[in-house]
Amino acid sequence: MNSKTAKDIIIGKWGLKSGSSRSESDLEKYKQENAALRKSMEEVVKGKNKMTDPERNRLLEKILSLEKEKEKHNHLIEEKDKEIQNLKDKLRSKNKNNEVSLLQTQLEEKTKEAERRERLLCPLSEVVSQLKCNSSTVTAKCYEIENRASTSQVSQVSFQETLNFVREFKTYVKDFHDIFVS
User: Per the database entry, which stretches of residues form a coiled coil (predicted)?
Assistant: First the structure.
């Protein structure tokens, strides 16, 4: 059960499919052979089975071969771990670069929007200045008309009409100013 769990971990780590890799089947075969050899060695050690020198040499060679295979597989695992870490680092770096690019794009958009608003604001400021100047002129005229009306024989109706016109114009200028300057 433990070897199955380790196998599942290795399969999950590299995304391999169970039974799809030749090296996986070789590894399983070597595990079985290793287990059989260990069992034989245990029997020899316990004295149950007398082993001849050629058998012993064959077993030792097989153990040595299996140990080399184990080292080879461990080396492959280390290489895959390094490759995985390298890919993770690249992914992190790519994500950071994407974030920087996104922020740069947003900054460029905001800068363009600010420039556009600036271009729109300049003519409006000129219009507001002109309206303020006109308002001052109209106010001066209004005072002049009021003074003349009090001293001259201008009819009251004409004076009221002019005064109403001036008040409406002042309201219009004030509303225009509030809309475009504020």
Answer: 20-120
